[in-house]
Input
Amino acid sequence: MNKQQLAQQLRQRLKARYPVLYVKHLADDQIIKSYVTCSGCNKQWLAGQELERAILESVSVEDFLSLSRQHRENEHRDTQQR
Ligand SMILES: [Zn+2]
Output
């Protein structure tokens, strides 16, 4: 996928959970970032070139989310649950 395709699909998912007007207002980068950042401590566990590569390697949004989860488990040591 490219960044635009991924953001478009993530946007569809967000629309199911948040007001459409709010989602419309978000930039592609913000949308992608919200899926690779901890809502508890704000740590972004997938960024820069690694993020670019994960997007390119993904053939679907599910693929991307599963890569993102792997990175989260490897690199995010926050045990705090919110
Ligand atoms: Zn955290």
In short: The radius of gyration is 13 Å. The pocket of zinc ion is lined by residues 38, 40-41, 43, 76, 78 (CB under 6 Å).
